[in-house]
Amino acid sequence: MNRFVVVSGCSGAGKSTLLAELSRRGFATVEEPGRRIVQAEMQHDGNALPWLDMSAFLHRAIDMAHADRASFSEARKWVFFDRGLIDAASGLEHLSGKPYLSAPGLADAYHRHVFMTPPWPEIFVQDDERRHEFQSAHDEYVRLVSAYRKLGYDVSMLPKTDVAARADFVLDALAAWRL
């Protein structure tokens, strides 16, 4: 059984906070590739930034997501990913019009049950690493829900509630899938 669980959805809607809570509860978590890429590129004056070269940024995100999955190939418990391959492939498909979501292995790259953070303007903030507007985050969310469903994933919307309740929601939904 696939133990890799994706938390995707709207930017700035609490994915990283949820993963921090799941980590606190003893689960392995993988930080969003995009944030790591932005931090590294900003530190080294790189160009693979979403506001400079979105294509290079998304290709790096795909490479990093593959490496993240490989690093947890022996995991025996749930591993929670803040975004992943499908998020980057969806972005590339939107950017280029090429069928990146048709790439082999995407439909079974993660556990069938995917959790989406819905748009939550009350907690959305911009910063040096997240420069896009809320509307762009919302539009990406719509594309991601469609992409995951198109690939056959079961999509659950996370409730707009405190992080402990969100973590309980995720773990309760996964309880039926014994490892």
Ordered list of secondary-structure elements with their pairings:
Blueprint: E1 4-9, H1 15-24, E2 28-30, H2 33-43, H3 54-71, E3 79-82, H4 85-96, E4 113-117, H5 134-150, E5 154-157, H6 163-174
Parallel strand pairs: 1-3, 1-4, 2-3, 4-5
Helix pairs in contact: 1-6, 2-3, 3-4, 4-5
Key features of this structure:
5-stranded parallel sheet; Rossmann fold; 12% strand; 5 strands; 6 helices; 179 residues; alpha/beta
Q: Can you describe this structure?
A:
By secondary structure, the protein is α/β, with parallel strands linked by helices. It has one domain: P-loop containing nucleotide triphosphate hydrolases (Rossmann fold, 3-Layer(aba) Sandwich). Helices cover 45% and strands 12% of the residues. It has 6 helices and 5 strands. The protein has a 5-stranded parallel β-sheet with strand order 2-3-1-4-5, with helices on both faces. Helix 5 links the parallel strand 4 and strand 5. Helix 1 crosses helix 6, helix 2 packs across helix 3 and helix 4 packs across helix 5. It is globular.
**Average pLDDT rating:** 89
Estimate what percentage of residues fall within beta strands.
Answer: 5-15%
What composes the largest sheet? 5 strands, parallel
How far apart are the first and last residues' alpha carbons, in Å? Answer: 7 Å
Pfam families: AAA_28
Domain NadR/Ttd14 AAA: 5-166
Protein name: ATPase
InterPro entries: NadR/Ttd14_AAA_dom, P-loop_NTPase
Summed up:
It comes from Caballeronia ptereochthonis. The protein has helices spanning 15-24, 33-43, 54-71, 85-96, 134-150, 163-174; strands at 4-9, 28-30, 79-82, 113-117, 154-157.
